[in-house]
Amino acid sequence: MTIVEKYRAESIQDLIISKKILEEINSWLNLWREGTPTKKALILYGPPGTGKTTTALVLAKEAGVPIIEMNASDTRNSDWMKRIALMASLYGDITYSDAGETKFNKIILVDEADNIFEGKSKDKGGDSGGLTELSRIVSRTNNPIILTMNDFYEFRRKPAAREIINNSLVVEFRQFKRKNDLDYRNFRNRLQERLSFIAKNEGLVFRPEITDRLLERNRDDIRAILNDAISMMSYRDDANSSAEAGIRDAVSGIYDVIHSTFKGRNYEMILSELMEKDFTTEDYLMWLDSNLPSETKDPSDMVSAYEILALADIFVGRVIKKQHYAFKGYAEEIAAGVFTAIKNVNDKYVKYEFPSYIMKMSRMRDGREGRRYLVSKLARLTHSGSSRVSSNLWFFQHLSKNRINLQEMQERLNLSEKELSILRKS
Amino acid sequence: MLRLTISVKNLKEIADLLNTVVTEAKFKIESGLISVKVVDPAHVAMVCLDIPKEAFVEYQIDGDEELALDVERMKSVIRLANSNDQVTLSKEKEKLKFEINNISKSIALLDNNTVVTPRVPVITSENYVIVSKTEFERGLRAAEDVSDSIRLILSSDEFRAKSSSDSEESEMVLTKDMLKDIKCASTIKSSYPLEYLLKLVKSLTTSDEIKLSFKDDYPLNIEFTFGQAKGSQPGVIKGSFLLAPRMEQ
User: Fold this and answer.
1) All CATH 3.70.10.10 domain ranges in chain B, comma separated
2) What's the half-sphere exposure (Cβ side, CA atoms, 13 Å) at A25?
3) Where are the strands (E) in B8-79, listed by range?
4) Residues of chain A contacting B45 with CB distance shorter than 8 Å
5) Interface of chain A toward chain B, CB-CB under 8 angstroms
6) What is the pLDDT of residues A152-193, one digit of tens each?
7) Model-level pTM?
8) Which in A75, A177, A198, B130 has the greatest CB count within 10 A?
């Protein structure tokens, strides 16, 4: 057992969690005590290590009910969803003896729900059908369900996610917004308390002055803070060697990197953050692209900043064409310099937006697929290439305005609803 | 030294019963009997078995101990045997050795800490019905494909098993004279998962009577006996199958 597991919070008092989040979660669970709420599931999203799973475990413990877990290491295709989550959601809990005292018998935890990878076909394996099944379960459940995830935006784009979200209370697991606000100070105090407790229990020495360094490095990732803190504590006798020794490389998330690209104005710093990034160069460019307008006050700044970004984009294009992926770094280094074009610095807070391009693409995918199938069917029928049919699609659309023609096409091509709707559109 | 010899029939029935709800089980071995309790991952179905010494041909143990096993692995070993064979099990370090006639095969034991024995709930009910397994199985089969759950209704003079969906319906009615025994003061009803009930009756091959007791929206307790002792005395192993009720909105 690692130290982090050993000191996993066991009661609400031990949780290092902001009051606001705790209140939101508690009032959701209270609704379950009175009956079946409309928001049957709870989505907790936030960076790793901030205590989402721990909170779910503590909630079950405090409510005195068993918890049924479906973890990322389990198979979560539709069969397993039915066998575990569906059964658990409709029936009582055989190990729970006080049935009737509360309206629910157990809590179902679907951990890392953004990692359920729903494949397209049944035989491909993976978690195919898992999310679709989960959405059905969430709308019918008689027991509370908690879903945790890191990337809510990624999850939102998955098939069937919409219905899950509509039936869920969504809570962001961020313990504080910025340094030195009230939540931050509370977080810092609670953390310090917990760390001294652990140190005392483990016979180590904890120096409070390292707290700020830990927070700087790991933000609200409690798991990382604990790991770092413990390795720093073991160097207890030597004041100088302690601080840097145990710090791991922190992964930089896209929000942080975008923030320092625009606001940091320190090129070396941006590059070093890019070294640890957990996203692709293309993502980086797209994020810069969609957020650049809100970070520039002066139109001429915007123009020159876009010049730089455009250059980086050309490089990415070439890299992909030639498949010299190792050269992507150059595009990144060019893009990292966008701030040099911004003379008139925007010092206001900007809420970075998710690139709309990516969202549009995923929304369009369904439509594009229907079109592709329609075109390939027409191509087979007319003995022509699909690109020719695609550019002459207007002709078939015009043809289908005649009811008899449409009927014949429908019979010969066995068109699906989606394909029909594309054909009818003109 | 741990050395147990048992008929393939008995062992197979034990393994099949456990396998209706789990793939791993922990056996608690004591001087007079071996007991095992398992619960499915959704906490809906539980199986508890008490296998007395008499169910074995040979029962040699050193003292109390626990053995955690992969039930599916065990079933695949049993498949090597004929139905009239005997199996001898012996523990060798972290392995369990199966000897069937001229074949021997060892499977790895699981870490006792990873297989959790569930807490058995305290459930009591005055109402019960004793039915023939074949009769009950017919009622369950009628409900198959109609719905995922079956509603059991017990009154002072009849036992009904009903299942319905938007478009289909099935019902089995067993009147007092068709039942072995019935005791129920007022009408009670509760729904249970059909799939588990079907799995249970399918794996119970050597028992013919089962006792069902429940209350309104309350866990169902099915008690049964099965297996054969050395002197071919039937029903030597005692078991119970617990099912959580469907929660009504």
Assistant:
1) 2-37+52-111, 128-243
2) 28
3) 24-29, 33-39, 45-52, 56-60, 65-70
4) 94
5) 36, 66, 68, 83-85, 87-88, 90-97, 99, 105-106, 142-143
6) 988 888 888 999 999 999 999 888 877 778 888 888 888 888
7) 0.69
8) A198
